[in-house]
Amino acid sequence: MSSAPVPSDPEIAAATFTAHLNQAITSELGQRRGWAVTRVDSLESIVHMHATREDGTVDEYHLRVRAHFYDEWPPQAIFVAPPKTPNGAWREPELTSKWLPHIENIWADSRFAYHTRYPYPDGHPAQLICCSKSLDYYLSNHTPTEGQRWRQGKQTIVALLTRVQEALQPPAYKGPLGDLDT
C-alpha cells in the first residue's frame, strides 16, 4: 500500500472489484443479510442493504461503492437515494432524506462512525463512512493503527459491507435520518 491513495489500473480494479462483489453477494453472509447489487458500470455499483430498528422495523438503504483505487485501497462508499425516474441517476440525498440512516456512533474502539457531512481537508463537506475499510477514511486525513489498516489481498469489499451492516442494526441504528424522499 502506497502512502497516499493512487487510482488503480482500471481494468485490474474492475475485474477484482467484480469478482469480490460477486463473492460478497452470493456468500452465505450476503444471502443471509439480503444484499443485492445494481451495477452502474465496471467500477461502480449500488449495494442494497436492510437496516433493522429496535422495534423490528426494516428499512432499505443503498450504498454506492466505487472501486477506482481497489484493491490496493478499500472501496469508496456513501449512501445514495434511488433514481426518481426509470432512467435516472442514483444521487446523494439531502440531509432531510429518508435515504440517510441515523446511526449513533456508539463504538468506543473507533471501529466505525458515520458523518452525514464531514469537513474534508479540501474544505468540502461530504458524507464519510468513517472506518478503515472505506477509502474516504484515508482521504479525510484519518490515520489507522497498524491493526486497522486495509490489507490488500487479505481484505475485500466484504470487510466494508460487514462493517456498514453492523452499524445498520441496534443499538447503533435509530431509523432514517429524515422522512422526505429526497
TrEMBL record:
Mind telling me what this protein is named? Uncharacterized protein
Taxonomy, top ranks, is: Bacteria, Bacillati, Actinomycetota, Actinomycetes, Micrococcales
* Species name: Luethyella okanaganae
